[in-house]
């Protein structure tokens, strides 16, 4: 088996590191292989090695300046590294090339959907659906653009079309679940999310959607218990991202009921008993910092940042109280 074939096989399975190794071996045999350079850049992009991925992509463009695939990959790298101006410029260059590939339509269409240009995204992806009528990803991307505009009938039609074209395409199943959840069909949504997890069990986004829906349907305790069973059945410790997912299974009220309220009560009781202001600052600071890292980023990075800043401010007050007490300026008791 050639190195490129091996790299393509590993890439298709989502084994990015193995694909990277195979494509590097291919480049050792042929340093000017544009396809290997682009695929290596894509594998690095998925591993979030954006700087190195960009270098390989620019190297591919230096060998073939008219390559739309290199432009699309460069746009994807810029998009995932949040350089949206460069991403849009590269996606449009690829789309305006004479030979429009499936990725050219999908790249620009998904970018426009993400950035709120829904109508233009629908136009681009509708054209792409005519050019590539058998593409499940094209149909799913078009369905998502319709979903964002609130046209749920067209969204369903495209998601269903993608699912019928390729029943093993997990994204189509997942978005059918998202649509059902939006329409209040929670049991149907749970079935779709469950099927998506079965098709791609290691992808946290599908599992997050399923577990949060189970919280809504069955309560926090049941969802947590089921999540523990899944981890035990897999015979592995939970990855860092899924540990956050597990803890986030309790929504704000559930979390407050089981953890925050008891801790706050303990801190308040102890601080009142010993009449210690510094302890209040320290306890509140620890709670706020803990909350900022404990899953809130799944919902809002802004909320997490505010909690972290408030917690750090509490720690600062605590240290100031200690310094004042140490130097005899006042007491830390109230």
| Structural class by helix and strand composition | mainly alpha
> Taking all residues together, what is the mean pLDDT?
79
CATH fold-level name of the domain at 167-249: Serine Threonine Protein Phosphatase 5, Tetratricopeptide repeat
- Beginning-to-end CA distance, first to last residue: 76 Å
Q: Which term fits the overall shape?
A: globular
Binned, the helix content reads: over 70%
CATH superfamily of the domain at 167-249: Tetratricopeptide repeat domain
Low-confidence stretches: 234-258, 295-299, 329-334
Total of DSSP H or I helical runs spanning 4+ residues: 19
Count of extended strands: 0
Q: Main sheet?
A: none
Provide the succession of SSEs: HHHHHHHHHHHHHHHHHHH
Beta-strand fraction estimate: under 5%
CATH architecture classification name of the domain at 167-249? Alpha Horseshoe
CATH class of the domain at 167-249: Mainly Alpha
Radius of gyration: 25 Å
Brief account:
With 334 residues, the protein is mainly alpha-helical. The chain has helices at residues 3-13, 16-29, 34-46, 50-63, 68-80, 84-95, 102-114, 118-131, 136-149, 152-165, 170-182, 186-199, 204-218, 220-234, 240-248, 252-274, 277-293, 296-299, 301-326. It is built from 19 helices and no strands.
Which descriptors apply to this entry?
Serine Threonine Protein Phosphatase 5, Tetratricopeptide repeat; 19 helices; globular; 334 residues; mainly alpha
Folded structure, characterized:
The protein is mostly helical and 334 residues long. Among the domains are: 167-249, Serine Threonine Protein Phosphatase 5, Tetratricopeptide repeat, CATH 1.25.40; 255-326, no CATH class. The chain is 80% helix and 0% strand. The protein contains 19 helices and no strands. The chain is globular, with a radius of gyration of 25 Å.
């Amino acid at each position: 088996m050639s190195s490129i074939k091996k790299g393509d096989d590993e890439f298709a399975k989502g084994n990015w590191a193995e694909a990277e190794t195979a494509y590097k071996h291919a480049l050792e045999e042929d340093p000017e292989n544009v396809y290997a350079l682009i695929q290596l850049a894509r594998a690095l992009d998925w591993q979030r090695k954006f700087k190195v991925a960009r270098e390989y992509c620019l190297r591919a463009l230096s060998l073939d300046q008219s390559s739309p695939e290199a432009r699309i990959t460069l746009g994807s790298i810029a998009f995932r590294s949040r350089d949206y101006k460069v991403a849009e410029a590269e996606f449009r260059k690829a789309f305006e090339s004479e030979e429009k590939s499936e990725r050219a339509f999908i790249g620009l269409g998904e970018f426009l959907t993400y950035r709120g240009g829904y109508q233009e995204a629908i136009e681009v992806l509708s054209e792409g659906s005519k050019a590539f009528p058998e593409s499940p990803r094209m149909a799913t991307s078009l369905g998502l653009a319709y979903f964002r505009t609130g046209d749920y009938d067209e969204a369903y039609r495209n998601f269903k079309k993608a699912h019928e074209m390729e029943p093993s395409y997990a994204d189509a199943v997942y978005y059918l679940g998202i649509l059902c959840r939006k329409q209040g069909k929670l049991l149907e949504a749970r079935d779709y999310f469950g099927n998506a997890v079965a098709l791609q069990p290691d992808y946290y986004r599908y599992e997050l959607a399923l577990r949060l829906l189970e919280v809504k349907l069955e309560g926090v305790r049941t969802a947590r218990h089921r999540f523990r069973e899944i981890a035990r059945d897999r015979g592995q410790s939970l990855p860092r991202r899924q540990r956050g997912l597990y803890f986030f299974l309790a929504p704000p009220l559930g979390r407050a009921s089981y953890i925050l309220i008891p801790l706050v009560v303990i801190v308040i009781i102890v601080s009142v008993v010993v009449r210690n202001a510094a302890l209040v600052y320290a306890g509140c600071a620890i709670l706020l910092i803990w909350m900022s890292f404990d899953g809130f980023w799944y919902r809002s990075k802004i909320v997490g940042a505010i909690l972290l800043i408030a917690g750090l401010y509490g720690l600062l007050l605590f240290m100031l109280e200690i310094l004042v007490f140490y130097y005899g300026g006042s007491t830390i008791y109230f």
